Amino acid sequence: MVKSKQLSLFGLIGITMAFFGTVRSVPTLSITGWTQIFYMLVAALLFALPIALMSAELSTGFPGEEGGPQVWVKKALGEKWGFVTSWLLWVQMFFGMVMVSSTVGVLFGYVINRPQLSSNNIFIFAVILISYWGVTLLNIKFDMVKIGGNWGAIIGVYIPFVVLVILGLWFFFKNGIQQISYLGNFKAKDLVPNFSDLGSLTYLSGIIFIFAGVEISSVHANNIENPKRNYPIAVITSVILLVIFNLVAGLTVSNAVPLGEMQLANITQPYLIFCKDLGLPMILVNIISAMILIGVLVQLSAWVLGPSKSMIKVADEGNLPKFFQKRTKRNIPITFVLIQASVISLVALLYVVVPDVNSAFLIITITTTILYCVVYALIGISAIKLRYTLPDIERPFRLGNKGNGLIWFISLLSLISVAITMIVSLIPPSILQPSQYTGYIIFQVGATVIMVAIALIIYKFKKPEWKKEK
């Protein structure tokens, strides 16, 4: 048996950084002004680190089994909750991909020098449909992941992020702190949230979304040299670097955008401000917009098939009717791919119902975070239970040398942070009108309950003949 090549400490740090490097979340971070420092530290210390460390133990404990979270939850809590986990990791994409797709319309408006289109909700809705169905049909016909490759990430994510940080720092050193910006008139109390304004706390959910999917890096825990020592170092280092880079980008954008004018779905806005102020040619904005647009389309393309391929394994195990087991000649899970495109089209109608693009973008971001939190709650419970039901399995990375004290502490910390995130997520954001508060709460509670309930109902009525014959 050939031993797989081991990752170095710096290699794992690079992979983790690459997974979370994105410019799309910067406006959501920036709109909170100085408070983003507090929010990022909370998101990193109470959310990202505990979940990453628990996932590492679970991943190294079951190295030969594909499926990640659904496998861990299935072994701890049974097949039903394993199915719920895989289901939620699929359906969260319905909301997440609408959010990602919405930036395509905004970016396209700047590429063609029609920036007014970025705030046109009908245009954004139309572009979501065209872009998502477009990448879906292309993925059915071609291997778009291979075509896009790493260049899509380099062109659409890394270069724009580095350029944003450089321009932001240049703007700051030239102009200092702008009094009309989100950082103006600084007072020490600005560093912590204003708890009397509950609506502002909702942004914590959007910032936590930056770290959603943190458990994915745990798949490399078995391939790193000396995982007991190096994995926690890699995760902690990655999170620290992510906090620093995001805060540099977030604070410089907060300093550039005038108070009350932040456009959450429009990452092009700060580039435009920087180029105007620094005397750079405006064509740079068009180029950067086109580059980010490429990155978004590559990301959409990767997500078209990824979760669907996980779900078809669940279907093959007999948790869904045989209709869901259909594949094309290229082994594409065609039923899942078409269903997710159809549901994403329906979710995109929120941009028609809620005309303000900012509000619709934030609502969908928060919905995605809530669904992730349900999965993370199941992972936290599973991590504790598996210590007692399967105590003797080899765990190359284990929280605590002896006893179960540390796993209890880390798991409870993650469960508390997940509970706080879900509670905060149900507070109507301050950018909504009071008349929209009830609708917001009904939407978030309804979407979460319905998505979990559908999984439980399907599992309850599953039939033995659904299982795929070997």
UniProtKB/TrEMBL annotation:
GO MF annotations in UniProt: transmembrane transporter activity
A Gene Ontology cellular-component term: plasma membrane
Bilayer disposition of the protein: Multi-pass membrane protein
Places the protein is found: Cell membrane
A Pfam family reported for this protein in Swiss-Prot or TrEMBL: AA_permease_2
Main location: membrane
Gene3D superfamilies assigned: Amino acid/polyamine transporter I (1.20.1740.10)
Segments passing through the bilayer: 35-53, 87-110, 122-140, 152-173, 201-221, 233-258, 278-305, 332-354, 360-384, 405-427, 439-461
Alphabetical keyword list: Cell membrane, Membrane, Transmembrane, Transmembrane helix, Transport
Protein name: Amino acid/polyamine/organocation transporter, APC superfamily
Species this protein is from: Paenibacillus uliginis N3/975
